[in-house]
Specification:
The structure is a homodimer of 226-residue chains. With 226 residues, chain A is α+β, with helices and mostly antiparallel strands. Chain A has 2 domains: 2-61, Arc Repressor Mutant, subunit A; 65-212, Chorismate lyase (3-Layer(aba) Sandwich). Helices cover 24% and strands 38% of the residues of chain A. Chain A has 7 helices and 10 strands. In chain A, the strands form 3 sheets. Chain A has a 6-stranded antiparallel sheet. Chain A has a two-stranded antiparallel ribbon with strand order 1-2. A two-stranded antiparallel ribbon of chain A has the order 3-10. In chain A, strand 5 and strand 6 form a beta hairpin. In chain A, helix 2 crosses helix 3 (30-42). The longest helix of chain A is centred in the first third of the chain and has 13 residues, at 30-42. Chain A is elongated. The interface between A and B is large, with 60 and 60 residues. Strand 7 of chain A pairs antiparallel with strand 10 of chain B. The first copy, chain A, binds a DNA duplex (19 and 19 nucleotides) through helix 3.
Chain lengths: 226, 226
DNA sequence: TAGTGGTCTAGACCACGGT
DNA sequence: CCGTGGTCTAGACCACTAG
């Protein structure tokens, strides 16, 4: 069925035969056709609606899946030696936008952390972060001197909900200094918000030197074949 | 089952009961358990191996799904008026790396296109592209004066395989001029390679002003709930 | 209201890969 | 070896919704 779509035998907008009809054509049961169609639907090749049937999607976007590894892994995978350095740790009132994103009360303090991650002695990531202490009171007792907040959180809140924003920005003066950047060198910024059951966990800004970082992707449509 | 994982009742590394056991516990058939487990597996919460069983993943990365809309949609969604301008169109020998990625012969020419996309008269995207003419001979007859190459391709090759790379870069002099950038303003670059059945289709570099562009994401783990 | 997809049961065979 | 997940059959009921 995927072949028929990519070969344009079934074109965008076309209505596919019903599961019933396809199960007869391919000589299998409807459950098998349903399973295949659901995979095509997950991959974004078709859209399904009860009674209306299944149609080939008119593609107007490229869906893609990325994997953001924790920085230590990424550095060690490159064969570099990893070093972690805590720069700042304090409990304070977060700025308004962070306060709202974490779902904190008006005068509720949160944990602020600033840390640097090196590969072969060269700064690779600046981690600037707020952690919700009502959600994670244990964080108040952790020094974060020896473990990065990202790893620490992943161990304690294994599968949170996540939202990311990616941006290319001009480095601030502080970022330029901490990341040892040259004049005019851009930074690749990942902003991440995690929460679980509606409760904000952390808000973090991951700043990477533009010249030492990139992110890659693989189509979600591909793995279906073969 | 997802609740048991997020609540740490089943912790990272833990072996889950077999499908057989779970089907008895939940009072359903193994097929139903299998379907649920497959969704958890797709979402990256568990890993499954025959004979070895199913384990909660030790999370060491954040998977995420992004959608890269075609630029015209993105601009129109913001309520801006879209304008397209073709800057350059010629058939030429591509540089070596592009030649290899498209799978072209040594002295095979390809179609080179350079175009700009405006929102409310302000440049939002520079599209610099090579198209494989053996894969798409029809492209030689298209002027691309009135339609962007991205849209044109999506209409003709609806569901190709895709690879992306994202980067923050310093704008070249030409990019700075074409995108009307200020001194030192970074660009967000998306490099895209598409192919179908092993045949390269296009290689494109989408250059966005860092100050007017961002990319967002939503966790793939979330939609399971509710 | 009729036809579509969504989902489930009950049962079966098999490939893989730890032990 | 043999327990695990992967996949399929055959049949059923139901929710949704376009016509």
């Amino acid at each position: 069925m995927q072949e028929r779509i990519t070969s344009q035998q079934w074109q965008p907008g076309d209505l596919l035969p019903s599961e019933q009809a396809l199960s007869e054509e391919f000589g299998c049961t409807r459950a098998t056709v349903n399973r295949a169609m659901r995979e095509l639907s997950d991959a974004g090749l078709v859209e399904r609606r009860r009674k209306a049937g299944t149609r080939v999607v008119q593609p107007s976007s490229h869906p893609a899946t990325i994997t953001i590894a924790i920085i230590r892994q990424e550095i060690e995978n490159k064969g570099q030696t990893y070093k972690y350095l805590l720069l700042e740790r304090l409990e304070a009132l977060p700025p308004e936008d962070v306060r709202v994103q974490l779902g904190l009360e008006q005068n509720e303090k949160a944990l602020f952390l600033k840390s640097l991650h090196y590969g072969d002695g060269i700064p690779q990531q600046l981690d600037v972060r707020w952690i919700n202490l009502s959600a994670l009171p244990q964080a108040a007792d952790e020094s974060f001197a020896d473990i990065g907040p990202n790893e620490w959180l992943l161990q304690r809140v294994p599968h949170p909900n996540i939202e990311h924003v990616f941006r290319a920005e001009k480095a601030t003066a502080e970022e330029q200094r901490l990341l040892q950047l040259q004049e005019c060198e851009p930074v690749f910024v990942i902003e991440r918000r995690t929460w679980i059951l509606g409760q904000g966990i952390t808000y973090v800004r991951l700043v990477h030197p533009g010249s030492r970082f990139q992110m890659a992707t693989r189509s979600s449509a591909e793995p279906i074949f073969n």
